[in-house]
Amino acid sequence: MQGPTAPGETPQITHLSDGEQAVFGTCGCRRCRFDIRLAPASPQGYAGRITAVDEHWRLDNLSGRHELLVENIDRPHEYLSVAPGVGGIPIPFEISRVYARGTGSDLGVTVFGMESSLASPIEARCLTPEETGPLLNPASTHYQVLAALCAPRLHGAPDSPLPSAAQIARTLTAAGNRLSERAVVAHIDYLVTRLGLRRPERAGRAWKRELLVATSLRDGLLDEATMINFPGAGHQTTAD
Q1: Strands of 79-82's sheet, edge to edge?
Q2: Residue 213: helix, strand or coil by DSSP?
Q3: Please, which pLDDT band fits residue 57 given cuts at 50, 70 and 90?
Q4: Residues 38-55 as b or e (16 or more Cβ within 10 Å = b)
Q5: pLDDT at residue 130, as a whole number
Q6: How far apart are CA 164 and CA 170, in angstroms?
Q7: 19-30 burial, b for 16+ CB within 10 Å, e for fewer?
Q8: In terms of Cα–Cα distance, which of 31, 11, 33 is closest to 22?
Q9: 141-155 vs 181-194: helix axis angle to the nearest 10?
């Protein structure tokens, strides 16, 4: 487990064997005891505990108000959220970054877990015909709309703001696929219907975009090879 460091500084590193624990966090009083203290001190303090267990590790959220996000460094769009006070959550990622949501900072610790073991493939005979071809056509305009929508979270932080329909229209138009804001909204509506998504309870105004991105990243609907250097990562969201 390694804490954040400034250039030229020696990093805080804690090694854990099976059954050992370490606590990390930040606080304003400077009297809380941490194996890795996150600086600078902040009134928005939080804490977590990591336990090494055989070939994986577990996370306890010791905070009373902040969620802890565990981000897969190898695939940043993959992450877990651990609610305040929840403990014993097994983490499947080999290299992870753990930080608190809602503190105004992504200051956190990096955890290097055990390398995953490889399972021997099993030859299975299934009588059901396999489906062929992608669910969405990568050459279609609605795929490009979805790619632009997902780009910030596919290549950035899991809570990166999503682009609005107007921003997507500008991005695709600049890339040679001229679209209006109204056309982008229509493509988003089409994707929601195509994927069979339904409005969640207490959904906000941006529920379609949020649900589309979450579903696409969870189900691997986008070919990451087509997303590399896709213009659209880093957009800031505005009201639709």
Answers
A1: 79-82, 68-72, 95-100, 108-112
A2: helix
A3: very high
A4: beeebeebbbbbbbbbee
A5: 55
A6: 10
A7: eeebbbbbbeee
A8: 33
A9: 90
Q: Omega into 121 within 30° of 0, i.e. cis?
A: no
Pull the structure tokens for residue 28.
């304003």
What is the β-pairing status of strands 79-82 and 89-91?
A: unpaired
* The dihedral sign for the CA sequence 52, 54, 57, 59: negative
Query: Alpha carbon 194 to chain centroid distance?
Result: 24
Contact residues for 232 (Cβ-Cβ < 8 A; gap 6+): 147, 148, 149, 151, 152, 163, 167, 168, 171
User: Mean pLDDT across the chain, nearest whole number?
Assistant: 81
**pLDDT tens across 93-140, in order?**
888 989 888 666 667 889 988 766 656 666 666 555 555 445 788 888
Measured distance CA(38)–CA(218) in Å, rounded: 31
Q: Determine if the pTM surpasses 0.85.
A: no
User: For residue 222, which of 114, 148, 111 has the smallest C-alpha distance?
Assistant: 148
